[in-house]
Amino acid sequence: MEPFSAVDVIRAKRDGLRLPDDQIAWVVDAYTRGAVADEQMSALAMAIFLNGMDATETARWTEAMVSSGETLSLDVDRPTVDKHSTGGVGDKITLPLAPLVAACGAAVPQLSGRGLGHTGGTLDKLESIPGWRAQLTLPEIRAQLADVGAVVCAATEGLAPADRKLYALRDVTGTVESIPLIASSIMSKKIAEGAGALVLDVKFGSGAFMKTEPDARALAKALVDIGVAAGLRTSALLTDMSVPLGRAVGNALEVAESVEVLRGGGPSDVVDLTLALAREMLALAGLSDVDPAGVLSSGAAYETWSRMIRAQGGDPEVPLPTPTHTHLVTASESGVVSHLDAYAVGVAAWRLGAGRARKEDPVQAAAGILCHRKPGEPVAAGDTILELHTDTPEAIPAALSALDGAYAIGDSAPERRPLVLDTIRG
Ligand code: URA
Predict the structure, then answer these.
(1) Is the pLDDT of residue 416 over 90?
(2) Of 13, 41, 97, 158, which sits most exposed with the smallest number of CB within 10 A?
(3) pTM score > 0.85 for this model?
């Protein structure tokens, strides 16, 4: 006999009431066990979408999702700290960041996902490295954390199963875009992962999940509040995602750009964001006296990257896959690039084969876009602005139509916008 009725819980939220702790714990658990049906959870998710949950309800909802599965105990003798990005176009920051922060003395367990839609997934990017494998067991994760200090791998099946079930349901019921549901979904997986501290990169702009800065700020605050309520040292950077990050968008292209950064080069926005996130992670890990810029330029982060890739079966020295076809988009006039839209570039890269439309679709390692010119850079008529890569040339017209109006050339450079707008600390 169940202690509550799903219909009563749905009615309470439908009528705008606060859900008590015990009802939240029950409904999440009962849904995971199958005692609350999909149609009942759909109605509850829609009631939450419409009427919200306050900070305490959201913290309890998250706790219930964490309790639906296993919590990893990482057992390492260095401070553990993780980073999560809400996703963006060209957002390869995990690749240089995890080995950099490990080279600074912390342990970085980064359980990641695959891409869906116009933003790429970290695992898809790393899988473009020949031999690299995403699936590790918990003992392998622990051993690699102790030995190398950084692990980027697929989340184990047992982490927050309630979230997996609920996220799939939200996806088909128009209830994804709810701040309490997004925040509890992200944080349940991160809390279950067992790191001691977490830095969130919450993005806003056309290429981000949250299109406006106020929405991103509200999500950042909800995420930090959940972390603090769960005893996790948490902070969030609010960052601009209106323009692609770096010049490379697409799996192997982003790995190559990350390696440039790890070797001391790379685009300045990628370097700056990597260092900003590294500083915040090190501060939360109690290592604020370590200078990540010095560690990056010393080559120690590249060394850790090589060990991290080898530990998971990859060969960091083997050339990355190249595409069978390229197509250049050139400037029709001279001037300064005044605009390059992240969302359009993300959709075009996805159509070229870098991303997937359905969870089970494969991705092309070599597909993507190189942005030869970014906002503020001069361009002469005939210069290449974008270089399209694909193994499926029949996809090029669809990619070009996504890029229609995606960039503009003007007389002067646009105003420079700060990449990191704010930091929200718990
Ligand atoms: N990412 C997640 O993990 N969950 C959401 O609800 C949205 C984005």
Answers:
(1) no
(2) 158
(3) yes
